[in-house]
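Handout, page 2. Input:
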Amino acid sequence: MGFALSNMQLISPAFDHGEPIPQKHTGEGEDVSPALSWSGAPSGTQSFAIICHDPDAPLVTDRGTYGFVHWVSYNIPASVHNLAEGTEDYASGPNDFGNQGYGGPMPPEGHDVHQYYFWVLALSEPPEIEAGLNMWELLERVESSILGMNRLVGTYERS
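Output:
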């Protein structure tokens, strides 16, 4: 799949791009998703998806997927441009902890700093995608309807 960044912007009041994610939003803290907001959605956007993925996790599957998925949230209407901290609104898919919804950063013991990519995807599809898709299924499902995307990268190292 080939994806290109767009002019959309994704920010969080919890951390800046390239900066550490507060422990509150990790598996060592309260494990609640950070608040997020985005702007610059392309014309024709009908819904959004949010994904959090750790490409530094040393996991490769037999399907060729890699890293660790922490959050898959989608069917977010085009009228919504932010998610509150700890939100459980909208459709969610499984994370690699085996749960639905958000599971915060928790690198394996002994690992250095990992990077966590929070992605916002602007989609030309209405917010009616079947629930329960994992990140890879969602990306395959929406690839042809992605109008724009961008990311916010936070870091975390286990204490």
